[in-house]
Amino acid sequence: MLRKIFLFCVLFCAFICADAIITPNDFEGGDSERIEAAIKKACESGERSIEIPRFNKGRNSAIWLIDRAILLPDDFTLVLRDCLVRLSPGVKDNIIRNAGAVVGKLAPNRNISITGVGKAVLSGGVESHYAPVSGDRNGWRTIGILFCGVRGFSIENITLQNTQAWGISVENGSCDGRISNITFDDKNDIRNQDGVDIRKGCHDITIENIFGSVGDDAVALTGLMRDVKPQDRKVGGSGMQFGGDWSTGDDDIYNITIRNVRAKCLGGHGIIRLLNQDGIRMYNIIVRDVVDTAAGADPRAQATIRIGDVNYWSIRRSKMGEMRNILIDGVMARGKVAVWIKGPLSDSAIRNVFVDSGETKRYDISAPTENVILD
After folding, report:
1. How far is residue 202's CA from residue 130's CA, in Å, rounded to a whole number?
2. What is the pLDDT along the chain (375 residues), one digit of tens a residue?
3. Are 278 and 313 in contact (CB under 8 A)?
4. Lower Cβ count inside 10 Å, N or C end of the chain?
5. CB contact set of 238 (below 8 Å; sequence gap of 6+)
6. How far from chain centre, in Å, is Cα 320?
7. Residue 214 forms beta bridges with which residues?
8. Are 221 and 198 in contact (CB under 8 A)?
9. Does some domain include residue 27?
10. Position 174 in a domain
11. pTM above threshold 0.85
12. How far apart are CA 154 and CA 204, in angstroms?
């Protein structure tokens, strides 16, 4: 008897908990309206979490078509359960961004999580939504997931498919974050299909278990800015950085760990890119276990690891000491160069670099270095 009572209690609690999950299927309207209604309800109830399930009752189909970005507030978890969420044809917006990133202002957010369960897919569409030129020239709305000024975040267990430019971009002081178990499914039929981009002012972030195919760099740390006149400064302007292309006084990129990246670049760019210019410092960066998975007829990457550049500066080029304390450990290269050092580098170590054939150079060093150990 006690066993039966116990099993009944377990089943009853499971039923109550399942019934308490807030999903867009609980609401009426278009897909974006229903997702927004679910988020609002979760905030009002204190649940602060919703789940987008595989089946969309409103469409009687296993797809969710959104006509604007899903905005996530503070202390919020979005669960994507075995679902496909896609930008509707022609929509020019992110798939997801933090709620504080509003055109004309930026309110920092905190503690935001995006978690996939099963096969969770976020899709930028089936073709370019921008003409005549696709890609990042069209600004920050081409980014799949945009987090700007978010302290405490996680993005994990999802596939990003056919993004309108970059897949994930984290910028303007975002920190204490984790991006993990991400698969990219890009075809390089849209320009600038980077995987994960970490922008100026970000720190204390782990990026791990990155897979699939991208059109541009799979993981890029890019500290860049422009000398914008004060009267021209606008948060959420036309550029690729929502937070603006000017100095904030705290623009360094540091304490970033990148590990277990197994990807190929269909655009012939790179797998990992470390780039700083305009006085932005980049330091305490760990990159481990990077494999270029290109094979056969796949385009060869320009370099598996690219450090620095002679281009992409607006105020001035990077100086010695501004890129430092970089550890690269474990590289399997199938491109033209395994490690290409194109900007000043100091106090760093690069080891366990392997190439799959004589067609791939291990190192190409075209910039000054100080206290850099190469194995």
Report:
1. 29
2. 545 554 455 444 444 444 579 999 999 999 999 999 999 999 999 999 999 999 999 999 999 999 999 999 999 999 999 999 999 999 999 999 999 999 998 999 999 999 999 999 999 999 999 999 999 999 999 999 999 999 999 999 999 999 999 999 999 999 999 999 999 999 999 999 999 999 999 999 999 999 999 999 999 999 999 888 887 888 999 999 999 999 999 999 999 999 999 999 999 999 999 999 999 999 999 999 999 999 988 999 999 999 999 999 999 999 999 999 999 999 999 999 999 999 999 999 999 999 998 889 999 999 999 999 998
3. yes
4. N
5. 139
6. 28
7. 265
8. yes
9. no
10. yes
11. yes
12. 12
Q: β-strand 105-106 against 101-102: which pairing, if any?
A: antiparallel
Residue 303 sits in which domain range? 50-374
Q: How many CB atoms lie within 10 A of CB 18?
A: 8
SS3 category, 14: helix
Q: How many domains does the chain have?
A: 1
The 10 Å CB-count burial string (b at 16+, else e) for 54-70 is bbbebeeeeebbbebbb
Alpha helices of the chain — where are they, by DSSP H? Answer: 2-20, 31-45
In a domain, 326, yes or no: yes
Please tell me the distance from the alpha carbon of residue 102 to that of residue 125, in angstroms, as a whole number: 23
Residue 22 lies in a domain: no
Residue 299 neighbours by CB distance under 10 Å:
14
Give the domain CATH number at 226: 2.160.20.10
Burial tier of 82 (Cβ tally within 10 Å: 0-12, 13-18, 19+): middle
